[in-house]
Fold each of these.
Amino acid sequence: MTAIEILQKYWGHQAFRPLQEDIISAVLEGKDSLALLPTGGGKSICFQVPALLKEGICIVVSPLIALMKDQVENLQSKGIEAIAIYAGMGKREIDILLDNCIYGKIKFLYLSPERLLSDLVRVRISYMNVNLIAIDEAHCISQWGYDFRPPYLQIAKLREIVPDVPVLALTATATADVRADIVDKLEMKEPQVFVKSFARDNLSYVVFDQEDKYKKLIEICKNVKGTGLVYVRNRRETAEVSNFINRNQIKADFYHAGLEKNIRFQKQEDWKMNKIRIMVATNAFGMGIDKADVRFVVHLDLPESLEAYYQEAGRAGRDEKRSYAVLLANQADVLSLESRYINSFPAPDEIRKTYHYLGNYFQLAFGAGEGLTFTFDIADFCKRFNISVLKTISALKFLEHDGYVTLSESVFLPSRLMFIVGHEDVYRFQIENKAYDNLIKTILRSYGGAFDGFVKINEADLAKRIGLSYKDIIAVLNKLQEIEMITYLQQTDQPQLQYIRPRVDMDHFDVDVKYLELRKKILLKQIDAVSKYTTTYICRSIQLLSYFDEPSAPKCGVCDVCLAEKRSGQQVQLNDELEFEIVSLLQQQPLNLDDLVTSIKNGTENDRIEAIRELLDAGKIKTDGKKYYL
């Protein structure tokens, strides 16, 4: 099969988008490549198509677990074998999945970067027939980028295990510094670099300096027809703003990562199917959501960087029709953005304290904990030690960089179980222990394959079928695990924190102070760029493109700055025409104000009166209180 036949068979598209075919050809020729395609540019096709054309398995590294799960489900729905391994899975479960990659027909193995830290994963990859390594959100590997993830630095070690396999790095946003850093950190050999222009001709960027943002938001919702997305800074605001929009008779809903998985899924579907017109969300919403007809994206708060803004704003108008990216910002926002990020930047001593508190929180002895993963409730942790959530999240990023711990995003993992003894032993156990017989029978009937691997279970469903309480079911399953009949992993939707090395005492704890200073410098530079974007009166598109190293872009003609320039040019022309008309009329005869205004053909009544006033002020015409004359 050819690349285009694969595209048509599995995706139903008749042709590739710009650059996709070139990137796929480079991958098929075995070349390392870096591809920059804007949001909605079809990045996943660039590694999925060539991987299907080649023998073997494609390893995809992605930092976003929700996105990984979406892509895996998407591939599976097309009949393509794909699996994902991420933080929160048990060792035994990972073991079985990796075996399937070596001996089964799996075509795609999705891994979170944290997983590459484990020896278990690395050793097993060395036995796989790997055909491609795809790095999604590749800007995360660069400390110059806006979303640096320290575990990404481990990716280069994959190259030692499978040295002759091509690497394809993909991202939607990267400055020239970040591009160079990606190539360097991934040890790319003679890389092919593909860059699609960051220009979005159909997208009109608008910045409003507004005190009453809510009033302006309603105006936008009423004036721009179609689906909208409103980004706010925190979870509390999502519900508040959504309620406010609904009170104005516009159908809206809210979304953030703290909602239960099935509720999040339902809200997402309702918005995609246009049952809900406007979604108010934190930046957790939108990743991997392929909705082409979003007509406007409004930011009610300033984004932390232009990279983040470009990516979020770029979710509007993927169908190439006119759309709007609106930023509502005033001077107070700029000051609060600066103070928010500067105040949340931890000092070396605060990072030390966070590490010390973590050890106490998980009750870890010094020298213990290496490789252990814990479910981590960050709100509870901060409350217990009376520390700031923002500062703690920042401190954890530095602990990741220095190789102490690694933290995954929140992810919903359903309950799973697997029998770890054979059929005969289970049968014998059922006969000898009648109390467990009904539950084991129900599990075996309801969930096939529980002897071969982990199966997803639903405790509430089991409780209903057997006539026990939810609590009792969990107690019985835990008992079966204690006596080593099963391995039982209970559902969670909390982030997972893993200790990379044993807990060290404070005398042996080091913080990379130089790196800390560098990150602070980068952060201030990013905040400064956002601040300049909102306050500089130059074409918005030119500003964004110049930030992404496209220096000689033409004016877009459709942003607020370009439109204001057009209006001002038209106003000058109108003023000239009005002056000529007034002077011509008064050359013929003096006129009273009413007759003069009605005799003028150009402009509105207000324009005409304003022009008469200006000519009077300039001394070009005069009045005796009744009539006007030259």
Amino acid sequence: MKRHAAHLPTPDGVDALIGVNFWSRTGGPLMWRDYDGDVVAQELEQLRAHGITHTRSFLYWPDFHPEPDRLSEEMLAHLADFLQRHVDAGMWTIPTFLVGHMSAQNWDPVWRDGRDVFSDVWFVGRQAWYIREVVSRFAGSPAIDGWLLTNEVPIYADWRSRGIDTIDAEAVTAWAQLLIDAVRAGGGTQPVSVGEGAWGVEITGNDNGFRVRELEPLIDFFGPHVYRMEDDPVRQHLGAAFICELLDLGGKPVVMEEFGVTSDYVDDENAAHYYRQVLHSTLLAGATAWIPWNNVDYDAFSDREPYNHHPFEMHFGLITDQGVPKAQLLEVRDFAAMLGELDFAGLGRPDTRVGLLVSSFLESPYAFTAREDGPTVFQVARQAYVAARTADLPVGVVRELDGLPDDLDLIIVPSTKALLAPTWAELERRASAGATVYASYFNGVHANQRGSWWPKLDDLFGVRKRLRYGLIEPVVDDTVTLEFQVDFGDIPSGAILTFAVGGTVDGRSHLPVEPVDAEVVATDRAGRPALLRRRVGAGSMILSTYPVEYFASAVPRVNPEPTWELYAALAVEAGASPEVRVSDPAVMTGVMEHRDGRRFVWFLSQTDQATTCTPVTDGVLSELGGGTVTGPVDLPPFGVVVYALDADDR
């Protein structure tokens, strides 16, 4: 299976697009009114010295477009100077046009008069005119490396709902087409995208009108904005990575357009840990550009909106208001330096034979389904991704709507209430052809047609289900135990795995079965079948009667939890063990390859303690600067180490 890692074009001599969202310390969102080119030059110089070559800049809409048919020449002159300062610094910028939302504040052009952002023909025409006019003046600037239509426009259009179930998708797609056409009509040939945050239904299960499948043919890159609030450190660290995996659509580059932390929520040391984890985990998940939020703090504007009512928004900077670099800026610097050392322009992700199947019920508005179904698919699939990465599996995320790749040895179907009927038949065909197909039973989180929508479950898995109509078999304990009755992968007979149980009353349930032509691999503490295997042709169908991924997804601070051991064993069964692995679940590995044949392996610690791990690989590890690695790998708290990986020719 191919895994996406498309690169956004960068200027000659630039290995990777490492940027920062930029407002000058002279004014924050109002910087253009108090514009000081010399201060901007100083700010750019400091960023450039730390490996940052790009900014994402913002044309504060009310200032640049003060009347429906007039642009501010003063603001445009400031923009011209701003672009020249980038040229002088050897830097580039991606301007953002419709900045009506920023940092917990919405600002309208005074002449909007309540018109709908997407469907009012006159208002959309004014937006297109504004964009075309700005682009026509500056498209030829060597400082411009891309364009963004907006900043988080679903919040601007409807801040109360964030656009969920209130914005019409057809209107949004037509609006985006018209505004992108305006960029091209103005002579803009650089890459363009929307700037909406990639928060749509295909990613989150919540439909805010910005459907990335419909926008994908129009745009040149995806730009997720990720500020997740989690209850588990590993889910927090891998949250952005999983979103990058979900954006494997159309072969478009994934730009981490926004991520970051406010210093009001976290100390410098933990901010650095978070940056390190997000930068490296998203790289391994297919992101190829990074633009954190944001360049500097804004203490001087505590009496201005939005900072007077959302004061934590003042302190997302990589640099303090006094010009002192924060720890997270040093992480960006080190990340940029590492990518330069590896010649990032030639790096990609190796193919994989392990697929995580994501149900189409995440994104498709099937009739008579419940509102919770889509977000639950996201919740469960993300936890399964965490478990797979904890097991060091080079997992690829497979969307059901896009079909199963032909070259998967292991297919993971985690805690899935529903797939399309033809998909189940296809999974059995894949097993017959030699794949290992694993699925865990799941009733869903609510009582609407409660039960797994698995046609001919008994035949698929070689069991007789012992369910009573309309009722569930509840799991009342806080843990579920699997005792293995046979050797399974690298799990020996007699081994016991204990899983934490969380979730709703309906979700905390299991599937009672009797084996017919399936082998009982593991039983629960009551001796009931919990993991079964039906041999099918050259492969197997493996059933978990407990939705262990769903259970874990609903438990705080649960990771690492033993689903990773189950997945590691499944990989052994499928002949798809990772190229490099470690036995410590607090350390994850990942491999990337260069087009010249060189390979590199990452070790990412998920613990706040210094740790040592011993790699298991048939290859030879060496320091990037030379020297074979013969012993354990030492990692500082939440640390990352990268080694070269060579074949063992002995």
